[in-house]
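Q: Predict the assembly, please.
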Amino acid sequence: MLNKIFFLTGNKHKFEEVEPLVYDFGFKIEMLPGHKLEIQSDSLVRIAEYAALNAYMKLEKPILVEDAGLFVEALNGFPGPYSSYVYSKLGFEGILRLLEGVEDRGARFESVSVIVYKPCIITATGKVYGTITEKPYGNRGFGFDPIFKPKNSEKTFAEMDIHEKNKYSHRARSVRKAFQKLSECIKLSRDRESISLKYL
Ligand code: IMP
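A: Predicted assembly structure:
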């Protein structure tokens, strides 16, 4: 039987990206919107860890939080941890406007995944480097997908299906890393338990 973890998100695109990744590690996720407390911070790690621990203390269920941001080089990393707010106010069109006439189109997405699965608390990060296109391409995905083209790809994220996006994406990288660490942590805690039982 697969072990269940509650994914604190109301974003069905994120859910669809993460769902196939966790099966490989023997887990399944259930979408749990409305429980993610977002603190203001310059650090995605702090934001995600706070949200995950806060939800765990309230719900006492296994929790996954994934937080991401777009960091544009010519804008000194803006919008970064404020990506969600900036997207809701300006959309990807706002980023294209800010970059009008700018030659340096370098950008990266960063993702932080935090899992609280007793007794393990896991944090993992993932990054993908690429460029901001001159105009939007594609209509899949969400957020800044139509204007972000990862390195070594001819397509933007919005031109890829989920399987293809997962080959490149910041989210796939942090989620895979987090579940790898979780599997190791669970094994270690079981080994410890059996050793202590043996010597009781
Ligand atoms: P969140 O706080 O993790 O939901 O992400 C913040 C914002 O970054 C979202 O509202 C999106 O606009 C943007 N974002 C995060 N991840 C992605 C992605 O994979 N593709 C496109 N935009 C993203």
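DSSP finds five helices and seven strands in the chain. The chain has one domain: 3-198.
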